[in-house]
Each structure stands twice: as C-alpha cells, then as structure tokens.
Design a protein that fits this description.
Elements: H1 3-9, H2 15-26, H3 35-75, H4 82-147, H5 151-179, H6 186-197, H7 204-216, H8 231-241, H9 244-248, H10 252-283, H11 290-315, E1 321-322, E2 336-337, E3 340-344, H12 348-352, E4 358-365, E5 368-376, E6 379-381, E7 385-386, E8 393-403, E9 406-416, E10 422-429, E11 448-450, E12 457-460, E13 462-464, E14 471-481, E15 484-495, E16 500-501, E17 508-512, E18 519-520, E19 537-538, E20 544-547, E21 549-550, E22 558-559, E23 561-563, E24 567-568, E25 575-584, E26 591-598
Parallel strand pairs: 6-9, 12-15, 18-20, 23-26
Antiparallel strand pairs: 1-26, 2-23, 3-5, 4-5, 6-11, 7-14, 8-9, 8-24, 9-10, 12-20, 13-25, 14-15, 15-16, 15-17, 19-25, 21-22, 25-26
Helix pairs in contact: 1-11, 2-3, 3-4, 4-5, 4-10, 5-7, 5-10, 6-10, 7-10, 7-11, 8-10, 8-11, 10-11
Length: about 600
C-alpha cells in the first residue's frame, strides 16, 4: 500500500496523528498555520487520556474496593465494638465521599482541559477560515455566473454548500459550549458528543461522507474518484475559459485551491468535532472508543488521499497566469501612459520641463507659424530591481511605473512563510530606483534604454522556471538584446516547508528568453486603445515582439500604450514566473502590460 495508507494504519491519537494532520495541512498553504496548534492539542489530549484512564477508572475502583473490605472487616467484629465500629464506618464513608468528590473535581478539570484545547485549535481554524473567506466569496460569485447556465450543476453545487454549512453550524455550536463550559451541565456535553458521533443520517460522520460523495460524484451522481466531470474539474475548466481571471485576480490554480481550502476546512471541522466528542464521552466513562476513533482516522485518511488526487488532477496543466482587465474608465497617467506626448506651443521648455529632452518642429500654415514640441519619455530602466531577500521577501506583484520620465518595472514584495504563504502585513511596493537620465553617473545602454527609430521593439515573453519548483521570483530587469527590450527574471531557491530562502545571495539565477526565431506581432494602429468599446484581450504569444509605432490617426502619438495598473494576485502568493504581453480589441492599438504566474502549488500536493 502507499506510504500514506501505511501511516494511517499506525495512527493513534499521538505522534502519528500529528504527522498525518501535518501532511494534510501542508498541502493547503492557507491552513498551514494550524499545524503547530494541532501538535499542542495532541500533547494535551495524550495527557488527558492518560489521566482519565489512571485517575478515574482505576483509582475510583480501587478506592471503593479497599473501603468495602475495611467496612466488612469492621462489621464482623464483636458486639462490644459495634458502637466504635459504627463511628469508624461513618468515617470511612466520609472518606469515600471525599475521594469521590475529588474524582468529580478531576472530571471537571479534564473537561476544562478538553474544551480549552478545542478553543485553541478552533481559533486557529477560524483564523484560516477568515483569511480564506474573501477569496472563496469571489470564487463563489464566479461559480454562480457559470451555474446560471447549468441548472443540474447549480443544484449539485448548492447541495455541497448546504452540507458544508450544516457541518459549520454544528461546529459553531461546540464553540459556544467551549465559551460557557463552566456553567454547562455534563449531560449537555454528553448529549452533544453522542449526537456528533452517532451513526445516523444527520450526524457528522454521515455529513462528511456526503460531502465527499458530492465532491467526487459525476454528472449522474455516482461516485467516481477518477471522473473529470467532478465539481472542481468542471469549475476549473469554465474559469479558465472565461474572463474571470482578470476580474478576480486569481489564477485558475488559485481558484481551485480557494475552493478546495474551503472544503478542506469544513472536513477538518468535522474531524476535530468527532475527536473531541470521543474524548468527552471517554471522560464521562461512556466507553473508551479507541476502535471507533481508529476507524474515524482511517476513513478521514482515505477521503483525504482521494481528495489529493482530485485536486492534483483539477490543477494539472491549468493556467497560473494573472493579468488585468481594462479598467472601467481609461485615465491617462492613472491606468495607462503614452510613450510620448505632443503639444502645440511656443515654449518647449515650459511644456516639457528643463530636465526633459524634446524635438522642435517648424510648420507654416496660412501665414501662421506653429511649433510642435515632442516631450520625450521613451526611456526604459535597465537597472535590476531585487526584493529584500535578506528579510526573506519575494516578489508578489508587478506594475509599470513612470518616474522622472523613465519607465520602471516596479515590484511588490512580501515576506515568504512556510508552505508558500505570504505574510500579508509585510506586503508593500518597493520604491523604484528613481534617477534622471542627465545624471553624470547614468549611461544609455547601461542604466536606461532610449527607444529610437531603429531600436523601438519590445519582446513579448513568459519567463518561468519550469524544470525546478524549488525557486520563486525575487527580481526583475530589462536588458537590450539585438536592439529589443528583453525581460529578465531572477529566481531564488527556497524551502517549501520552512518558507526560508536558501542563501539567495549565491543561490539565485537570472533567466530570460534569448528569442530564437522570434515572430513579429503587428500592431493595428487605426484607432487609439482608449477609444475601444469592447474590452481588450491578450493577443500575443510567447517568443513574439512588437514595435512602437505612430498612430495612423495622429502621428504625434505613439502606440501601443503602456498599462500601469497593479498586477497582483488575491491572495498574495510567491511567483513562479513573469511575462510581458500585448492585449487589444479589433481595430485598436492596444496596451503593453506585465503579467504574473503564481507559484505551482500542485507540485506539493501528495501523490
């Protein structure tokens, strides 16, 4: 059998349980922070179980038997000692009563330990649930758009949501019990625990099995773990074919993960409820339930293993790209910039500023002289932009940024955490290396590139490290290759489980596409991109290039425009690649923009 199945056979609520749950949580970065809490809970549960067994079941029995023997011996003494023995008997019963009361106190103490442990892990699960909620809400909204066109699927998906909600409602009830544990009657907890683990159609075990069936069932409602017609696969296919990627700012792989994380959290809630229910019943001497708990873990392990395969298949080959749609309204210098700008005036230095260059064109028309000043902003930064790797930060987003008339690729960075998560509190846009091209220490071709008539091309590439998933993006830059602006990306080695970059100063590599047999993409310059009524769509492919040209309707305007919108994913994740692409609508010049590729988490889903 597979390694995971072997592990499940050995499972007891101790070291193996910790290892198993840790493996489950490691597959889902959003809930990876629960692992440490589960470790603590396992230790507490081991201690509680041992104490319950030694101090309740055995000690109470020994005390009663010893006391009975003492009483019997005293009763058999001579009549002369009856009165004296009666006093001793009463003293013995008083001692027994005191010991029973002490045992009851221990039961309540163990109850508090159980419920406090539940509160601790519940807080961690709720934190993960809260972090994921906003992204699941976006994904669910996208699903509704698809479901409106597919009624059978809508019914199936709603049934699955209903099952998850029923588990969550029961879980929240146990959370309330944990809050008011000191005033609860023991019978209340016992009834809750018995209902939770009972083998009926409304209890948690049945709900977990039902959720699993709904997740794996095909179009005919039959269980099929290998079916490509399951919920996740159908949603992934629809999402990838739609425009939802640029609206939600989630790659297809992220979309699948957001949904699966929600399902995994619901299953985790059910599993935690059942484990703690067995403990409650064990505490009140309703049985030991060790065999029942073993069966629970076995079933949970099998379901999780099948879910791994399902998620892996749903993610396999799916797009990890994130790009931005057109904004509701195009705004110059807010959502886009033009490579150059032309105005009519008599004072070019006033229009362009003394720190900019310009060309002065003279034209006579009906005895009037016009001066045309073209303010140059055709410069692209060639200096590298690196994340603060010494602080374990990686690139999480990208955008074009015009600063002092130089176009930069500005990076968003954030601290990398275990299992490929990002600390959202550390996310920031790293300031660009602002400089003037007229500084004495700047040089064309080294610090910046000047678009000219003979060197006005930009390469359209996707730069990814597809042969090794132990690398993430930590830097970007442009270089000039055969007169073209060419994208370069820095990748740094990291440890997925610890989230630590591994000596990024020495274990980082620059990667690019040298562009053999590169194809030219012609820009339709008939109309300006901001005049389009239709949304622009990606048109370029890897290993192409385009030239910046004059617009046919206004030769003083250069097209395509540069899209300067933020390109980030929700939630923020490390990146597995970066690209430069061109998007447009028919008959319009379009935009050049960056795109990002989210890290491939599918490589870490266990086989």
């Amino acid at each position: 059998m597979k390694q995971l199945q072997t592990l499940l056979i050995l499972l007891i609520f101790g070291q193996c349980a910790h290892a198993f749950i840790g493996t489950i949580l490691a597959a889902v970065p959003v809930i990876g922070n629960v692992v440490k809490t589960v470790q603590n809970v396992v230790k507490i549960v081991n201690g509680i179980s041992a104490e319950i067994k030694s101090e309740q079941m055995l000690k109470r029995q020994d005390v009663l038997i010893d006391s009975y023997h003492k009483i019997s011996n005293q009763v058999n003494q001579t009549d002369k000692q009856i009165m004296q023995n009666q006093v001793k008997i009463m003293d013995s019963f008083q001692g027994i009563s005191n010991q029973i009361n002490q045992t009851d106190d221990r039961i309540m103490r163990y109850q508090r330990k159980i419920m406090n442990s539940f509160k601790e892990i519940s807080n961690q699960i709720n934190q993960a649930d809260g972090n994921n909620a906003q992204y699941v809400a976006k994904a669910t909204e996208s699903i509704k758009n698809y479901a409106r066109q597919n009624i059978p699927f809508m019914i199936k998906f709603n049934d699955m949501l209903d099952t998850m909600n029923r588990i969550t409602i029961r879980y929240e009830e146990m959370e309330r019990y944990a809050i008011y544990q000191d005033t609860l009657e023991p019978s209340t907890l016992i009834s809750f625990a018995e209902w939770t683990v009972s083998p009926n159609a409304f209890a948690v075990p049945h709900l977990m099995n039902l959720l699993h069936l709904q997740l794996f069932s095909d179009n005919w409602g039959k269980f099929n773990s290998s079916s490509v017609n399951n919920v996740l696969s159908l949603l992934a296919q629809n999402y990838e074919e739609s425009m939802e990627i640029c609206e939600l700012q989630q790659s297809t792989q992220q979309f699948v993960y957001s949904l699966y994380t929600d399902i995994a959290l619901a299953e985790l809630k059910g599993y935690v409820m059942m484990e703690f229910s067995w403990m409650i019943l064990r505490n009140y001497e309703k049985g030991n339930f060790f065999q029942e708990a073993d069966l629970l873990r076995w079933d949970f392990g099998n379901r999780t293993e099948r879910a791994y395969n399902l998620v892996r298949n749903a993610m396999e080959g799916k797009n990890r790209v994130v790009w931005r749609c057109d904004p509701i309204k195009h705004i110059d210098k807010d959502t886009f910039v033009k490579i150059s700008k032309t105005k009519l005036d008599t004072f070019c230095t006033v229009l362009c500023g003394t720190y900019r260059t310009y060309t002065l064109n003279m034209d006579n028309w009906i005895d009037r002289e016009y001066r045309s000043c073209r303010c140059d902003n055709r410069y692209f930064n060639l200096r590298e932009t690196i994340a603060d790797v010494k602080d374990n930060k990686v690139v999480t987003g990208l955008r074009f940024k015009m600063q002092l008339n130089v176009m930069h690729l500005q990076i968003q960075q954030g601290e990398l955490l275990p299992y490929g998560a990002i600390d959202e509190t550390t996310v920031e846009w790293k300031p660009v290396d602002a400089y003037s091209i007229y500084n004495n220490n700047t040089k064309v071709g080294v610090d910046f590139h000047n678009l000219t008539q003979s060197n006005r091309s930009i390469d359209l590439d996707n730069v990814m490290k597809t042969d090794d998933y132990s690398y993430v993006v930590t830097g970007v830059r442009f270089r000039v290759l055969d007169g073209h602006l060419n994208l370069m990306v820095q990748f740094s080695n990291f440890d997925f489980q610890t989230g630590k970059l591994l000596q990024p100063e020495t274990n980082s590599v620059w990667q690019s596409n040298d562009g053999q047999n590169r194809q030219k993409l012609d820009v339709d310059s008939e109309h300006l991109p901001t005049q389009a009524n239709e949304k622009s769509l990606p048109l370029s492919k890897h290993n192409q290039y385009l030239e910046f040209v004059d617009s046919k309707i206004d030769s003083e305007i250069t097209v395509p425009f540069i899209d300067i919108q933020d390109v980030v994913s929700n939630p923020r994740v490390p990146l597995g690649g970066i690209g430069i692409y061109y998007r447009s609508s028919p008959g319009h010049a379009g935009f050049v923009a960056p795109k990002i590729y989210t890290y491939d988490y599918g490589s870490h889903v266990p086989v």
